[in-house]
Predict the structure of VOC domain-containing protein.
Amino acid sequence: MFDHVGIAVADLAASERFYRTVLSVLGAEPSHADAELVEWEDWDIGATDREHPVTRGLHVGFRAPSREAVDAFWQAGIDAGYRDDGAPGPRTVYGPDYYGGFLLDPDGNSAEAVHTEREDPVPDGCVDHLWIRVRDPAASRRFYTTIAPHAGLRIGVDEPDHVQMVGENFSFSLIDDGRPLTEHVHIAFPAQNDATVRAFHAAALAAGYEDHGAPGERAVYHPGYYGAFVLDPDGHNVEVVNHNR
């Protein structure tokens, strides 16, 4: 799994209603909710502020336990007045048994429920994949291959306009399809020890990437939270974190 993926939303109450409506159909309920942040295990939505502009142009896919659950996810959104972004059905271009349904959240990000026939330990309702539209896939590829040994990543697809990075039970694609760029996403990858967090940060800075937070404990999140942050070529905030618990 991703450790977590975070987005900033223009209206937290409106986005909370959307994600509660559709993710509850997949069996996922918030693990934390307050006036500033709502979390569903590995998916976080937070209010915008000066440091966190609204996220735009992101595609996120959530795991569904069945095709019927994909249908129910999409129908729950439509019934609540949210916008269609692709009715449920097979998408064999992504895989022979790939079945997805798509909606737009209040900020226009694409949210999908996806079911494929596979067995792994990731719970239903968790993030399966992201699609991030980038300025230069080759530049993004260099960044993510630089941090790959410390973030548990490898290359899946390697094409000029589509680079897919694969983790143990998730993926994210860096694409250039002529549409507006994705803006202001936070992606965090899990580490098993503090040394990996430090190695991630050092490797990124040695390659010339921008620091966004030196390795250290962030007890504001919880005691033992040890993370480091850098910016990718499109300014997305990328973290590796060890929870020490």
